[in-house]
Specification:
The protein is mainly α and 148 residues long. The chain is built from 5 helices and no strands. It is elongated and about 55 Å long. The mean pLDDT is 87.
Length: 148
């Protein structure tokens, strides 16, 4: 027999189990969204606290290193805050995806020129690249509507 939402109850199972699963998924999604938003806000603020570091990892072919560090830091902070704000999360998520893609040249520069960053293990510099992909996947989750 069809349930109210059009699905069929299997062997007499009720919708209450599905509703509690959906509620649990929504709570997990919200907690992880807040964590992600706060991480981006901290990372964005860090651009203003440790500006010389971020300037040092800028690829030489990009102009206005300091200005780009400040702009990317501000964008990271604002988009992280927007991600935590209901009604703005989807727009913020798309913005964060674009931002992560935009800062990838700095990560590539570090990986390809590990000799310029002797304080970091070259393996770690290369491992940051798949981390960017994982970060984009995590952010992409918030471009989709939340479960009902």
């Amino acid at each position: 027999m069809p349930a109210k939402d059009g699905r069929y109850a299997i062997l007499g199972a009720s919708n209450s189990h599905h509703k509690s699963q959906t509620h649990g998924m929504r709570q997990t999604r919200d907690v992880l969204k807040w964590l992600l938003g706060v991480l981006f806000m901290i990372a964005g603020a860090n651009h203003f606290v440790h500006t010389p570091f971020y300037v040092s990892i800028m690829p030489p072919y990009l102009p206005w290193h300091t200005a780009l560090v400040y702009v990317s830091g501000a964008a990271e902070f604002v988009l992280g805050a927007m991600l935590c704000s209901r009604g703005w999360e989807r727009l913020a998520a798309w913005g964060l995806i674009l931002l992560v893609i935009a800062v990838t040249p700095a990560n590539l520069h570090m990986a390809f020129h590990a000799e310029l960053y002797p304080q970091y293990n070259p393996v770690v510099l290369w491992l940051r690249l798949p981390l960017q992909v994982a970060l984009i996947a995590w952010v992409y989750w918030y471009t989709r509507p939340p479960p009902v």
